[in-house]
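Anyone up for a design puzzle?
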């Protein structure tokens, strides 16, 4: 039977979905892999993966790296990313503001987002203190492990939060389980306060600060954060929060958000 036009469109759409799946898989894995390994990991037919890998190689979306036929994200993606950064005001403004925060506080400043149902650091500027704290940009982390997580899901209802976050993500790095009801209570309190701070669940010697960046409709689309040595963070809590809140307020205003509170932590 001859392939219809709808069949052709459907087949091409499935191929496009699979190509994006390959790119996303390699982004998360962060290492070159052979096409047959990719096929096994994502549960796809080897023949289609080889075909798509060759196509992506031809367009510069993948490059050979590491020998033995391994492939990884291609240099053309870098140029696409720089074009995106030049046009997307949020990224540009956050990049500028992170530099200001890192210089002003001497601490590591981050801009964080949701990536699917996980948290990730999208941009980072290390502080200038001799002892530096850094994170892997783009690494996916369970939402309940992070200060930003309390702000990034604040627009969801209690039921939506429970449906959104995988149950296993409430198990913290130390093996203790954070009760979902306690997490939700922290989300609501963070919304009321306009920030969230805590001793990190990932690094036991750090203290984390997170404040929301709001778009015009009031939804939190990103956070500005400071990751500090625990004692320094607690000692300078008021000053650090004031710096973060002023920075986030400035970016939020440029995105069209108007706050009814109109005050900062230290005022």
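Challenge accepted. My sequence:
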């Amino acid at each position: 039977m001859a392939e219809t036009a709808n069949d052709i469109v459907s087949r091409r759409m499935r191929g496009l979905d699979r190509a994006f799946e390959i790119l996303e898989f390699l982004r998360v894995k962060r290492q070159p892999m052979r096409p047959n390994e990719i096929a096994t990991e994502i549960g796809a037919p080897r023949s289609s993966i080889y075909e798509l890998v060759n196509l992506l190689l031809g367009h510069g979306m993948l490059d050979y790296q590491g020998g033995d036929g391994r492939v990884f994200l291609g240099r053309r993606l870098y140029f696409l990313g720089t074009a995106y950064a030049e046009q997307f005001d949020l990224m540009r403004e956050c990049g500028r503001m992170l530099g200001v925060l890192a210089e002003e506080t001497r601490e590591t400043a981050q801009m964080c987002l949701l990536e699917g149902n996980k948290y990730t650091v999208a941009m980072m500027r290390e502080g200038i203190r001799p002892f530096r704290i850094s994170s892997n940009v783009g690494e996916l982390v369970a939402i309940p492990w992070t200060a930003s997580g309390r702000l990034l899901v604040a627009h969801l209802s209690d039921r939506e939060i429970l449906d959104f976050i995988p149950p296993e993500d409430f198990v913290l790095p130390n093996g203790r389980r954070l009760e979902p009801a306690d997490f939700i209570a922290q989300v609501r309190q963070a919304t009321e306060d306009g920030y969230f701070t805590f001793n990190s669940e990932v690094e036991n010697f750090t203290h984390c600060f997170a404040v929301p960046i709001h778009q015009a409709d009031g939804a939190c689309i990103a956070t500005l954060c400071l990751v500090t040595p625990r004692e320094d963070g607690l000692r300078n809590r008021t000053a650090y929060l004031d710096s973060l809140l002023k920075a986030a307020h400035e970016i939020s205003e440029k995105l069209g958000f108007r706050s009814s509170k109109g005050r900062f932590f230290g005022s």
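A detail worth pointing out: The first strand starts at residue 62 and ends at 64.
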